[in-house]
Design goal:
This protein has 301 residues and is an alpha+beta fold. The protein has ten helices and four strands.
Length: 301
C-alpha cells in the first residue's frame, strides 16, 4: 500500500505526483424534525456541505483518487429556533482499508450534539483558516482535519500531528468569538470538540496515538496473513489504552475509540486462542464497561 509512503513523505514536506482532494465524504441532512415550508433549503444545505468537504484541498499531502479518505456525516436537524438558524446532532465516521482485503475498518466515530449554526441559501459557505467566517464552516473544517489526522496517525506514527494542530487552531479561533455557539470550550461539556482535540494533543495520549498506528499497520493490515501476530499487537494496544484510561477516566477520545471499534474488536478476538480471548475480554470489560454485553461472546468456547 503506497499510502503509508505518501503520508510519511508529506509529513516531511515532500510533495509527490498529482494531487486529489483528501476526502470522499458522504453527507446526509435529515430535516424530518424541522417544520419549514421551503424543503429545498435542506437539499441545498446538504449539497453545499458535500461540496465544502469534498471539493476543497485541506493539506499539501498527495492522494490518488482511490486513496481519498472515506467518511460520512449524518446531520440530524433537531430545531430551527429562528429562520436560518439550526440546531443538530451530527455523527461523523471515517474508515480506512485493511491491507490485502476488501474490509474497511472504522477509524473515527463521534456524535457531536452541540451543532448550532446559520445557513442561508443566498450566502456562500466560506472558510478562512485565520478568520472566523461562520460556525458551520468552522465545525466542518475542524472535523475535516480530525478525520485526516486520525487517518494519518494510522499510517505513520504520530503522522496526524499537523492536521491536529490545524484543528486546534480552528477551535481556538471559534472559542475566542465570545459567541453563542457551543462545543468549543471545556466548561460546555465533557465530550465535545474541545475535549476531543485536547485529549489527542495531551502527552498522556501519545501511547494511544501510537496504538492507532500499531493496531492498523501491525494489526488490521496483517490480519489476513498473520492473524495471531495481529491479535497480539491489538492486545498490547488495549493494555496501553487501559493505562491511559486509569489516568484519564471517561476521556472523550477513548469513548470515541470504542464507539468506532467495539464490534471490530469482538470480531478480531472471537476466533482467537482461549488465552487471548480471555485477555481481550478482561481488558475490554474494564476499559469499556458500557459494551460488556457485547463482549460476552468472547467467553463462548
Amino acid at each position: 500500500m503506497l499510502k503509508r509512503l505518501f503520508v510519511l513523505l508529506c509529513v516531511m514536506g515532500v510533495a509527490l505526483g498529482a494531487r486529489a482532494q483528501e476526502l470522499q465524504c458522504d453527507v446526509v441532512v435529515n430535516s424530518e424534525q424541522v417544520a419549514f415550508a421551503n424543503r429545498q433549503l435542506f437539499t441545498e444545505m446538504q449539497n453545499r456541505i458535500f461540496e465544502f468537504m469534498n471539493n476543497r484541498r485541506w493539506t499539501n499531502q498527495s492522494y490518488r483518487v482511490d486513496e481519498r479518505i472515506k467518511c460520512r456525516m449524518l446531520i440530524n436537524l433537531t430545531e430551527m429556533p429562528e429562520v436560518g438558524t439550526f440546531r443538530a446532532n451530527v455523527q461523523i465516521v471515517s474508515v480506512r482499508p485493511a491491507y490485502g482485503t476488501g474490509y474497511e475498518s472504522t477509524l473515527f466515530s463521534f456524535i457531536d450534539r452541540d451543532w448550532l449554526f446559520q445557513f442561508n441559501e443566498a450566502q456562500p459557505l466560506d472558510f478562512a483558516e485565520n478568520n472566523f467566517t461562520g460556525n458551520l464552516s468552522a465545525m466542518l473544517a475542524y472535523y475535516a482535519y480530525m478525520i485526516i489526522g486520525m487517518d494519518n496517525d494510522s499510517f505513520a506514527r504520530l503522522g496526524g500531528s499537523p492536521s491536529f494542530d490545524r484543528a486546534r487552531g480552528i477551535l481556538n479561533l471559534a472559542a475566542s468569538q465570545n459567541s453563542i455557539f457551543p462545543g468549543w470550550r471545556p466548561f460546555e461539556g465533557n465530550r465535545n470538540r474541545y475535549w476531543m482535540i485536547d485529549n489527542i494533543q495531551d502527552p498522556v495520549f501519545i501511547p494511544f496515538r501510537e496504538g492507532i498506528y500499531t493496531m492498523h499497520r501491525q494489526g488490521m493490515d496483517l490480519m489476513a496473513q498473520d492473524p495471531e501476530k495481529a491479535r497480539k499487537a491489538t492486545l498490547e494496544v488495549l493494555r496501553n489504552i487501559q493505562k491511559i484510561s486509569q489516568q484519564k477516566p471517561g476521556a472523550a477520545l477513548i469513548r470515541s475509540f470504542f464507539e468506532a471499534k467495539s464490534d471490530e474488536l469482538v470480531n478480531i478476538f472471537k476466533s482467537a486462542a482461549p488465552a487471548d480471548k480471555q485477555a481481550a475480554y478482561t481488558l475490554l470489560t474494564q476499559v469499556d464497561p458500557t459494551n460488556n454485553t457485547k463482549y460476552e461472546v468472547l467467553l463462548q468456547r
